[in-house]
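INFO batch 0412 | record 1 of 1 | parsing
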Amino acid sequence: MIGVNEALQGQGLGRSLMSDAFETAYEIAKRAGTYCMWLEAVSEEKAVFYEGLGFRRIEEAGLRMYIPITAIIDLINTQTDEDAA
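INFO prediction complete | emitting tokens
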């Protein structure tokens, strides 16, 4: 489980944690052939946050979500391109 204390939210810490999680998922996928990363959001508000990172809901109104490894690779490549610019 990962999360950011409410007092520290809004400072980019959650995005930073997820960036690290994406890197780890990608490394695992290269070795194990994983299709996606999935999670269960703790609230609707958090689900909206994860949708902003590219996650999709497994059920229309549910909190279980996934993001394909291909989307994670795209996000990593975009970040690398932005860092190089």
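INFO post-check: The beta strands are 36-40, 56-57, 64-68.
INFO record closed
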